Description:
The protein is mostly helical. The chain has helices at 2-7, 10-25, 27-38, 48-73, 77-100, 106-126, 137-173, 175-188, 196-209, 213-249.
Amino acid sequence: GVFVADHGSQDRAYATLFVVRGVLGSLPFVFLCCLLAYKPSLVSVSSHHIMLMLAFAFWCEKISLTYKAILERAYALKRLAVLETAALVVSFSCAVIAVYLGYGVFALVLQRLLEKVFTLIGYAAVSPWRLGLDFDIHLLRHWITSFGFATWTGGLLGLFLYDFIGALVGLGSGVHSGGLYARSFKMATLPLMVTAVFNRITTSLYAHAGGDLEMIKQIFLKAQIVKAVLLIPVQGYLIVSAPWWIPLVLGEHWLGAVAL
Length: 260
């Protein structure tokens, strides 16, 4: 909304955002290549293909966010819901099949890769914007000086928390500990799904605000308050009742996730 209001051209704004997302999304791949080139002993040979697949999934996720933002701005929420539901059904179905075929933990990697690739292709297919490279360096400078630094910092933190901590735990403490951490983290962040629909609604409010940064700040603060009201009771209930529902829903072998 800020980009379009300040510069007028939607195609230029979308193309610039697409390039920014593509560059940021490639950072895990670049980091992994540097690690393999200079410190290959830190990564076991058997996990090379898994980490490359995760890096590619992350890149797909990042560049798909441009198409997702465009669809949200166009109020195409039904299309988004259908695509994301289909992506989850297809990816988890393939993961379950992979588990029964004996692929073990690789099934989780496959699920994530398929989900991100499926959503990227789906978003691009139904988006009203077609890929262009009308990149604007002035628009990029405006993004960096306005809220780019905060986005960058949050992105790095999210990358570490969501994509690499589980792998690091697995490398340091074994696959079992890594699996427990990954499952615990997913369960702990499950209540965030409650606010997913709310986030979609606020997208249209941000777009309506355009270049009015003061209005955007007010929308953001009110959104965080509402999300806190929705999340805290659910999160608290999950924590208190974890010793009961984890063995009931997931089984006794996941009891180690209770403390996490």
